[in-house]
Amino acid sequence: MVTVRIRRAALESALEAANNTYPDEFIGIFRGKKEEDGASLTELIIAPFSTYGDGFSSYSDYHIPANVGALASFHSHPHPPALPSKGDLQFFSRSLPFHIISCPPFDGANAFDSRGKKIALEVV
Question: How would you class 77 by CB atoms within 10 Å of its CB: exposed for 0-12, middle for 13-18, buried for 19 or more?
Fold first, then answer.
């Protein structure tokens, strides 16, 4: 079973940023280490020149150093559910191996693989 483990402080940082950006969508990146059964995420990175808007958010890969250890994206939806949209699935398929989505009240999140399949998210 694929599991993404995330440090509580890193997830709480992302959830707070999503809440503060609401009603616009927030986007960020988690750094960490790949593991046999998934990943261990340790820190939230806010990409330079990120865009937060009504129903969208984005960042440019060109502004993320290759050696930063980016393994997962995080973004918020302004309304439930915290499930990937068609646009999310397109983004997932061409970017990082793991993705996390949250929605109001920003007290939890769901994790997905690059195909949009829900995977286990363990807060450590």
Answer: buried
- Residues labelled catalytic: 25
Query: What are residue 52's phi and psi, to 5 degrees?
Result: -120, 125
Cα–Cα distance for residue pair 73/112, rounded to 1 Å: 10
Which has the closest alpha carbon to 39: 113, 89, 117? 113
Sequence spans of domains, the chain: 3-116
Stretch 70-93: mean pLDDT, rounded?
Answer: 93
Whole-prediction pTM: 0.91
Tokens for 79, please give them: 């309304």
3-116 CATH: 3.40.140.10
